[in-house]
Amino acid sequence: MTSNDSQHGHTLSRPRLYLLALASAVVTANAYYIHPIIAVVAEDFGVSASIIGAVPAFNQIALALGIFFLLPLGDRVSNKRLTSIFVAAQFFAIAGMAFAQDFELFVAGSTLLGFFTIAPYLLPAYVSRRVAPGELGHATAILTTGIIAGILVARAGGGILAEQFGWRSVYYAAAGLMLLVSILLPFIMEPRDRETVPGQSYAELILSIFPIIGRHPDILLSGVIQALSFGIFLAVWMGLGLHLTSPQMGYGVDVVGYLAVFSAISLVTTARLGKWADEVGATKARFVLAIGQLAAVVTLPFFGHSLWLLMIPIILMNLVGPAIDVSGRMTFLSLDPEIRTRLMTIYIVIMFAGGGIFSWAGTIAYDLAGWNGNAVLSVILSILVLGLAALSLRQQRER
Prior knowledge:
- InterPro entries: MFS (IPR011701), MFS_dom (IPR020846), MFS_trans_sf (IPR036259).
- This is L-Proline/Glycine betaine transporter ProP.
- The chain is mainly alpha-helical.
- The protein has one domain (10-188, 198-398): MFS general substrate transporter like domains (Growth Hormone, Chain: A).
- The chain has 19 helices and no strands.
- It starts with a helix and ends with a helix.
- 57% of the residues are buried.
């Protein structure tokens, strides 16, 4: 155990861990309300499918930038203080989205929201210093389950609420939840946390990321795998939001939300798969899960005509996708505690940069070739995930 681990000990109680997972759910949900309502927002602002893709794309790219410039502070400044500041900034950004009358202002609010969505990525490093090493996979999976719950509620609740009360009601409700989290989260996080780690300026802290990559090059491979996997998730849901509400399918935005409910299976399976990954090893688990992901994605072009058939790949994708993320994080969260936040920075920056690119690619593919174009893009990305997961597993076995 390192000195830092000794300082904090394995002090995190299970109730606090679940409360942090709940806070992660609320904070993460903000980026995903757009999924079921993307078509009605585009119609209200009078923009095309390709242009509306800028909303999730800029949000994800801004998140990558925010993580690069802000998340490394978690290795130097109190995680509690940073989380409180960033959550408050998110509240103001999403409130701005709720009241924006111009599309440009709506995009600006979404972009600022992404830049300050740091809390869910500070918390894994925060928790990793407060649980036993043998419980790391399970604890990480619980936090990931919270994030999944937030995504699920955003997509299901957002569609249902928008169908009944209009799309702006979704962001009014989200702003209210963010205000509540802003008030309560500082009381959930432990007060005993370092305020400042001396010896490095902010510039030195940012620049120190690059030597860390040199010492731990596997972080790049894990980041790219997750970028592609996350890109599949975003591209598919952008496509679903446009496809199901199209004249050909004729469903309302509430149906997009109802479809998201079937992904609730991941709330039950992710923690269990985290335990399984603890047993078999992160890289082997990720390879097996990538096979499952590809098996689900290849059915998308064939099942797109039927809402009921689409439930099959959606359920399978939501079973394996979050677990791929958990196994990817496990490859580096067991390393030196003093650099875990910066390792998380590298991983998440790559993940969200890819997510932003591929979410926009998903709407462009839909604009060009409809659902089949979106589905084929997702199949290509899934093949790349499997190939890189196999490469990672081979590299580990050769060591």
